[in-house]
Structures are given as C-alpha cells and as structure tokens.
Amino acid sequence: MLRTFIDDVSSVVAATDDEHEITKRVGLLLSALLASDFRLPPELTRPAADHHVNYPLHIAADGAWSLAAVVWNVGQRTPVHGHETWGVVGIYSGAEREFRYVKPTEEGVPLTPAGEQVFEQGQVTVCCTTDDDVHSVAGVGDAPTVGLHVYGADIGAIERRRYDPGTGAVEWFTGGWDTPPVPSSRLGNRTPRPARCPSPSRTR
Ligand SMILES: [Fe+2]
After folding, report:
1. Strand partners, 111
2. Over the stretch 99-136, which tens digit does the pLDDT of each residue have?
3. How much distance in Å is there from the Cα of 160 to the middle of ligand 1?
C-alpha cells in the first residue's frame, strides 16, 4: 500500500513542475492513504523526549521528493521555519495546531501572522508552496501526534530558514533525519543521507 502511494506520488512529481497542481494531487493521494487500512510500524510512531522526530519513509533517488513520519510528543512545538519547497501534511494520529506566517520578502522585519488551525486524524493540508512556506507546528491533545509529510525535496538534507518571528532574524539550517528504530529496508527505502549540518533545535 505504501509502495503504491510512493509510485503514485513519483508519477505526479514527474508529470509537472506546477506546485499547486502537485500539492492538490498529492493531497488526494494522501487522503486516500489515510482513509485506508494502512498502518505504520509502531516503531515509527514513537516520540522522543527532547524533540519531535522525523523518520524517513521514502527519499526519491534523485532527491525530488521525500516522505516522512513526523512525531510530536505531547507539548512539543517547532520553531518558526520555512521549507523552500512544496509540502503536504496528513494527520495519521492525534492532532496538530499550525501557526502560519506570511513569508517575508526581507530580513529583519517582524513576521506577520497568517492564522492558525487545528488538524486532526485523517485531515490533509497543503503546508507549503515555495512562496508560502512559513509556519510553526505544535502537537496538541494528550497523546503524541503522528503526521505523514510529503515534501518536494529531501527535506532532511536541504538548507532552510528558521525565523525569529519577533525580529524577523533568519538562521539557515539543515534538519537532518532521525534514525528509524526499524531497518529502513523493511519499508523499501534507501538509507537516508546524514545531515550536513545537524541542528540542535529540530525543525520540520
Ligand atoms: Fe514545517
């Protein structure tokens, strides 16, 4: 089932460069996956005590896209960050609150909030296109939050921005991947590349 999803997303990504078209079509595929009886290995739904974790489920060989299982423990929240590519997020279990910001056109100007929304199990949202990709995400509720995240790059390897929303200060970072507690071969994936510049504060 995951293999079919990966093949279908690969076909979408190969068919067009239009991020709005890609995210629309990937969103439909992700909704169908979440509505199916697909289940992650339990090991890939486990939170970590000190930071939310980003397990690679698939990284395209050419780096054109990636699929992650992202797990927040209760109370964990990301810094405000960008992605520099498109992204689609579906909630596998639990719930998240997304705090959006207008992508700034210059550095050093406080960020403008653009609303917040709670997403629950089974819901899918387009988290980003390259021109609208700034947010912070928190797990909400009294259980860990698990999301399936599809991005238009190897999201653990590319350089991205982290923002101080109060000042608009930007810090570039590479998020890296967390090591799955099960062999990645079980999911039919290649080994993720190590982060070039691991960040002490994980951001997805
Ligand atoms: Fe994010």
Report:
1. none
2. 999 999 999 999 999 999 999 999 999 999 999 999 99
3. 10
CA of 182 to the centre of ligand 1 (A): 24
82 CA distance to ligand 1 centroid (A)?
6
Q: Please state the pTM of the whole predicted model.
A: 0.89
Residue ranges of the domains in the chain? Answer: 2-171
CA of 167 from ligand 1 middle (Å) equals: 20
Strands 145-151 and 66-72: antiparallel
At the topology level of CATH, where does 2-171 sit? Jelly Rolls (2.60.120)
56 burial via Cβ count (<10 Å: 0-12, 13-18, 19+): buried
Alpha-carbon distances, residue 186 vs 5, 43, 98 (angstroms): 16, 12, 31
Asked whether the CA dihedral 81, 110, 75, 96 is positive or negative, the reply is negative
